[in-house]
């Protein structure tokens, strides 16, 4: 952008130049005119001198008066002086004094001489000037002749002069010559003056026209520019107005309070919401110091503040500040935006409450309970002093209330127990619902002896609670595990595990009692080992860390079809095999078998669907799965998912599982048989009254318990048992499978008895699925041949 000085120069300079040019032209014109006028005046003196010289010489010719002759000389000196001045000027290096003396002698004014010299020197080549000078130069010869004639006449004595006529004639002849030259010079000079006058007049007119034209175009441009600026201004004004209007409407309609201040922190604007929040109208706010009208409380620098309005109300607000800057960057105020945070903070408080409290009981949830316990343990780790205790509570036979009076009754009881616990305990104790009918209590700063008393007080309070639901009245008990905390002691996981195990022990020992955890409690350690196994099984289920093994069941009669039993192995985190005995008992005790059975069904079905047609596998079902009402649907869903032929699936259930759940087992067997599945009764003979049940169980195969097979070669009783099982099964239309067959002799004996199939190391060891697949492909037929 040009500075104002530059703009001023840009405007003024053309005019200054035009005026200077005009002035120059005017000065030049006047000077040249005055120089020409000097030459005209000089010519007049020259002519007068020349004329007077001729006249006085003529008179001298008659009078011979010396005075006349002197006058002649004086008069002639005028043109001759001009001549000498001119001749001096024509030299390369003129003597200016001689020039000046010459022109002065020509009766020229002293002040004109400079201009005359300048004009002569600079314009002698210019045609008009050159013409005048030519006349002037032509006169030289005649002037000099006149001088000579005069001198000659003077030198000739009067008497000796020739006839007067000779001189007179010569004089007249000179006069005749000089007169036209003088006239020519004068007219040339006048012509020059005229032409110069015209030319300068033209230049002047042109310059004036030029000046007028540039004035006109400048003014026109300036006028147009002004018009344009005016127009822009009007637009800009309209835009500014619209923008201001938009800002005002926007600020007025936003839900936050907007306040602007000036440099002195005085309110310069506030919108409608600001008026409401601050409790004063705008005209009472504008101009007042911000601190006076907007009183905020809260930590310095915090955006979460409380605003105290003029009428004393406290409003939670979030504040944001933004400085306002002038175009030069200087801060000229700020914008303060206050957001009414009541709703947001209420919502946040509610969310935080929900995240930390149990929905049903309003006491702490498990996560918050554990977080607080964790804090306490961290304090102990850091060396903080104090004795505390953790109580793990599980209501006894709570299920009964749910089952007899419904879930709503159970919920109500859980609520009442929560209130009871809170009422029984001190403020500073931590009470939370850990899930279901389990509660956790941390007795903070409570001596160990007191802790056991408090636990007992809690137990008693629960026992004393008479829960009424409709016409029914219930009394419940609670089993409590207690872990005493002091000094550096374990992490949260360990403490909770110990409390849980202690609670379990309280249950095991007959319920409604307190069990104090101690590290060297043998029963507890068994329980903890089992619980660890349970968590390992759960993790393995979650991460699919199981694999399938297969053990061949070979036919002992020609034409019989080989099949195989599916066995499951667990993998540890490193992929190592965990034998069934290390996890099946724990899975059975902690109700994980249905999950495990489902895992096997899903994977075995998928693998079997990929086998050659006619391949048949037996899958074990635990007692718990026999009672699993959803099992049938699960089997169907898996069949649909992988398309396995159910005719190739045989389920094995143990005799004890079947007998323990006879009705469910019979129903399940029938339902699955209808779909094409077959059934085998596993470990047959192990039970006390196996035969009595066999007729109620419509199985296809009976698997003779391995304990009998081991004795068939040496014990007549065992052999008789196997024979009778085999016979009775055949009579009932079932096929038999001998388990744990190891020796060739056993095989021969079983074949002789007419047992249909054999399974055991003597037939084939359990193999991983892939190995079994490869081996079975090749050996499928030869194995049968070898056995026959
Ligand atoms: N009404 C209700 N029942 C629940 C809730 N959460 C879990 N349960 C039930 O509470 C019962 C807890 O059973 P358990 O603690 O295993 O058994 P119990 O009947 O108390 O018997 P023991 O603990 O062995 O003495 C289960 O039947 C759950 O379905 C709940 O929020 N409301």
TrEMBL record:
Residue ranges annotated for the EAL domain, each copy included: 530-780
SMART domains: EAL, GGDEF, PAS
Entry-linked Gene3D superfamilies: 3.30.70.270, EAL domain, PAS domain
CDD domains xrefs: EAL (cd01948), GGDEF (cd01949), PAS (cd00130)
Domain PAS span(s) in chain numbering: 243-288
Molecular function GO terms recorded: catalytic activity
Domain GGDEF: 386-519
InterPro entries for the chain: Biofilm_reg_signaling (IPR052155), EAL_dom (IPR001633), EAL_sf (IPR035919), GGDEF_dom (IPR000160), Nucleotide_cyclase (IPR029787), PAS (IPR000014), PAS-assoc_C (IPR000700), PAS-like_dom_sf (IPR035965)
Residue ranges constituting the PAC domain according to the UniProt record: 301-353
Listed PANTHER family: DIGUANYLATE CYCLASE DGCE-RELATED, DIGUANYLATE CYCLASE DGCP
Protein name per its UniProtKB record: EAL domain-containing protein
């Amino acid at each position: 952008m040009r500075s104002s000085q530059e703009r001023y120069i840009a405007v003024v300079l053309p005019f200054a130049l035009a005026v200077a040019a005009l002035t120059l032209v005017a000065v030049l014109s006047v000077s040249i005119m005055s120089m020409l006028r000097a030459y005209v005046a000089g010519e007049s003196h020259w002519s007068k001198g020349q004329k007077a010289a001729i006249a006085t010489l003529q008179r001298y010719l008659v009078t011979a008066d010396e005075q006349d002759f002197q006058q002649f000389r004086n008069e002639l000196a005028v043109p001759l002086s001009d001549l000498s001045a001119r001749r001096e000027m024509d030299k390369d290096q003129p003597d200016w004094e001689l020039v000046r003396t010459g022109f002065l002698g020509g009766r020229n004014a002293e002040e004109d001489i400079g201009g005359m010299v300048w004009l002569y020197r600079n314009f002698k080549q210019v045609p008009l000037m050159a013409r005048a000078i030519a006349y002037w130069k032509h006169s030289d010869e005649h002037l000099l002749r006149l001088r000579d004639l005069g001198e000659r006449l003077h030198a000739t004595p009067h008497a000796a002069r020739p006839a007067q006529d000779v001189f007179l004639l010569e004089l007249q002849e000179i006069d005749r010559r000089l007169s036209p030259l003088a006239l020519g010079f004068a007219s040339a000079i006048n012509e020059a003056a005229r032409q110069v006058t015209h030319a300068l007049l033209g230049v002047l007119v042109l310059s004036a026209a030029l000046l007028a034209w540039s004035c006109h175009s400048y003014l026109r441009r300036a006028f147009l520019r002004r018009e344009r600026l005016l127009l822009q201004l009007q637009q800009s004004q309209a835009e500014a107005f619209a923008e201001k209007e938009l800002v005002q409407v926007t600020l007025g309609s936003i839900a936050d309070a907007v306040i602007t201040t000036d440099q002195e922190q005085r309110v310069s604007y506030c919108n409608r919401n600001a008026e409401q929040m601050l409790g004063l109208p705008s005209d009472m706010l504008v101009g007042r110091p911000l601190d006076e009208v907007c009183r905020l409380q809260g930590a310095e620098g915090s955006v979460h503040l409380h605003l105290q309005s003029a009428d004393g109300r406290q409003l939670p607000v979030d504040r944001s500040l933004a400085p306002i800057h002038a175009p030069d960057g200087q801060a000229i105020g700020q914008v303060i935006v206050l957001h009414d945070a009541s709703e947001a903070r209420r919502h946040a408080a509610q969310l935080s409450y929900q995240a930390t409290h149990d929905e049903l009981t309003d006491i702490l949830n498990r996560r918050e309970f554990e977080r607080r316990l964790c804090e306490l343990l961290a304090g102990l780790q850091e060396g903080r002093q104090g004795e505390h205790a953790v109580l793990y509570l599980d209501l006894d036979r709570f299920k009964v209330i749910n089952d007899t009076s419904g879930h709503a009754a159970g919920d109500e009881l859980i609520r009442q127990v929560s209130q009871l616990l809170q009422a029984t305990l001190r403020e500073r104790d931590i009470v939370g619902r850990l899930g279901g009918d389990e509660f956790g209590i941390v007795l903070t700063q409570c001596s160990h002896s007191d802790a056991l008393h408090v636990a007992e007080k809690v137990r008693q309070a629960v026992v004393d609670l008479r829960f009424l639901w409709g016409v029914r009245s219930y009394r419940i008990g609670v089993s409590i595990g207690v872990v005493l905390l002091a000094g550096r002691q374990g992490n949260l996981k360990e403490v909770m595990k110990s409390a849980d195990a202690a609670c379990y022990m309280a249950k095991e020992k007959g319920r409604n009692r307190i069990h104090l955890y101690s590290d060297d409690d043998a029963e507890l350690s068994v329980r903890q080992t089992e619980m660890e196994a349970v968590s390992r099984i759960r993790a393995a289920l979650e991460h699919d860390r199981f694999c399938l093994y297969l053990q061949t069941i070979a036919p002992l009669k020609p034409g019989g079809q080989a099949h195989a039993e599916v066995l499951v192995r667990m993998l540890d985190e490193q992929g190592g095999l965990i034998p069934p005995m290390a996890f099946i008992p724990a899975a059975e005790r902690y109700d994980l078998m249905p999950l495990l059975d489902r895992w096997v069904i899903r994977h075995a079905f998928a693998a079997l669907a990929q086998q050659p047609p006619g391949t048949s596998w037996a899958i074990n079902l635990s007692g718990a799965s026999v009672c699993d009402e959803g099992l049938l649907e699960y089997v169907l869903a898996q069949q649909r998912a992988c398309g396995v032929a159910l005719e190739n699936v045989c389920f094995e259930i143990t005799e004890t599982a079947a007998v323990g759940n006879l009705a469910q087992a019979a129903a399940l067997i029938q339902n699955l048989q209808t779909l094409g599945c077959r059934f085998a009764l596993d470990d047959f003979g192990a039970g006390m009254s196996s035969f009595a049940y066999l007729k109620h169980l419509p199985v296809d195969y009976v698997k003779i318990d391995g304990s009998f097979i081991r004795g068939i070669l040496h014990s007549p009783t065992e052999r008789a048992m196997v024979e009778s099982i085999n016979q009775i099964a055949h009579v009932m239309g079932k096929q038999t499978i001998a388990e744990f067959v190891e020796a060739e002799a056993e095989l021969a004996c079983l074949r002789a008895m007419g047992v249909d199939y054999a399974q055991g190391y003597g037939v084939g060891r359990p193999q991983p699925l892939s190995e079994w697949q490869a081996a079975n492909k090749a050996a499928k037929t030869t194995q049968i041949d070898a056995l026959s």
